[in-house]
Amino acid sequence: MKTKPSSQTKTALGGHPSKREKKMGLATRDAYGQTLVELGKADPRIVAVDADLSKSTKSGLFGKAFPDRFFNCGIAEANMVSVAAGLASCGKIPFASSFASFLLCKGFDQLRMSVANPSLNVKIVGSHGGISLGEDGASQQSVEDFALACALPKFTVLSPSDEISCKALVRLAAEHVGPVYIRTGRPKAPILYTDTERFQLGVANKLAEGEDVTIIANGLLVWEALLAAEICQERGISVAVIDLHTLKPIDEAAIIAAAEETGAIVTAEEHLLSGGVASRVAQVLAQFHPVPMASVGIADTYAESGTPAELFEKYGLTARHIVQAVESVLKRKK
Amino acid sequence: MENGIIEQLQSKANLLRRDIVEMIAAAASGHPGGSLSAADLITALYFKVLRHKPSDPEWSDRDRFILSKGHGAPALYAALARTGYFPVEQLKTLRRLGSPLQGHPEKGKLAGAEASTGSLGQGISIGAGMALAGRLDQKDYRVYVLMGDGVANEGQVWEAAMFAAHYKIDRLTVILDCNRQQLDGWTSEILDIEPLAEKWRAFGWHVIDLDGHDFGQILKAFEEAQRTTGKPTLLLARTTKGKGVSFMENNLEFHGAAPTADQLQVALKELTR
Question: Taking CB atoms and an 8 Å limit, are A89 and B122 in contact across chains?
Answer without folding.
Answer: no
